[in-house]
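Severity: low
Component: inverse-folding endpoint
Summary: output formatting inconsistent between runs
Steps to reproduce: submit the following structure tokens with default settings.
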């Protein structure tokens, strides 16, 4: 939907959820409800591609968040929680320039749940964590680089 109003315009063709538009307006990054990972497509039109794969392939919507909800994009790349090695999840970074993923920090047995946010300086993260018997917490990760 245009920010100034008007008719909605379909962007994705095979579904999409939790979208982020690049600051130059050329790309759309998004997740899907039925498959974990981050997808990329040109906003001018063109095919979607799986950019970053993380989380189980049989992921389905659960009571905490849809699969792949724990990510945040910047102009340099995408920060995300990789849950494929749960309960030892990690925060990783996909660099747009190199097209490589690097591990930033281990969450050491934490169960990420819900959203994920990164500070503008890319030095601090906030994410939700579910702890059986205790409920949920908001976790802070600082100075990881």
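Observed output (run 2 of 3):
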């Amino acid at each position: 939907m245009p920010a100034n109003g008007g008719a909605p315009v379909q962007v994705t063709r095979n579904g999409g959820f939790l979208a982020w538009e690049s600051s130059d307006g050329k790309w759309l990054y998004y997740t899907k409800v039925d498959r974990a990972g981050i997808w990329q497509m040109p906003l001018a039109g063109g095919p979607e591609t799986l950019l970053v794969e993380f989380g189980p392939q049989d992921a389905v919507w659960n009571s905490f968040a849809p699969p792949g909800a724990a990510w945040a994009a910047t102009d340099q790349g995408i920060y995300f929680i990789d849950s494929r090695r749960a309960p030892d999840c990690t925060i990783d970074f996909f660099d747009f320039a190199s097209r490589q993923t690097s591990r930033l920090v281990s969450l050491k047995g934490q169960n990420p749940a819900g959203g994920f946010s990164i500070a503008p300086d890319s030095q601090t993260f906030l994410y939700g964590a579910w702890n059986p018997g205790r409920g949920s917490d908001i976790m802070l990760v600082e100075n990881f680089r």
